Amino acid sequence: MADTSHEHDGTPTYGDTHDHEYRAHYDQSPDRYADRSYEQLRPAYQVGHLAASNRDNFGRDFEEIEPDLQRSWLEELRATHGDWESVRHFARHAYERARGGASVGVSGATFGSIDQRATTLTDTHDRPSYSDPIPAGDPEQVAGEDRAIPGRE
Questions:
Q1: Residue 75: phi, psi to the nearest 5?
Q2: Rounded to two decimals, what is the model's pTM?
Q3: Which of 25, 44, 103, 122 has the largest CB neighbor count within 10 A?
Q4: 153 has a pLDDT exceeding 60
């Protein structure tokens, strides 16, 4: 795996350094599955790590974002890597480690931290999320009275 880490520019990434650290965690974890390799659990670590790098999640605990992560754990991931309940603790570990939380590494060292300057909201980031473009209420009114809604003419 090539190290594609670009954390210096704020882009959430996952590279070789992270992979080696999470592999070491899995290899020494008491929660390690005898019938699953690290490669089968890597996506759970990746999901948790990348979620911690997402600016929308800054300052949020794992429990707050877990419903979103669980919804993103699609059927193809469940079939190949296990259901969410069996992998959630690996995602949680990566989320907490990438946030610079209290999780510790193999030798007791922590790694990963978020520059606190990056968590300061600017005017352009201090706005509501647009991940759901249809607000609550009557969807017929989304476009306003004087504009047609595409596909509903």
A1: -55, -40
A2: 0.59
A3: 44
A4: no
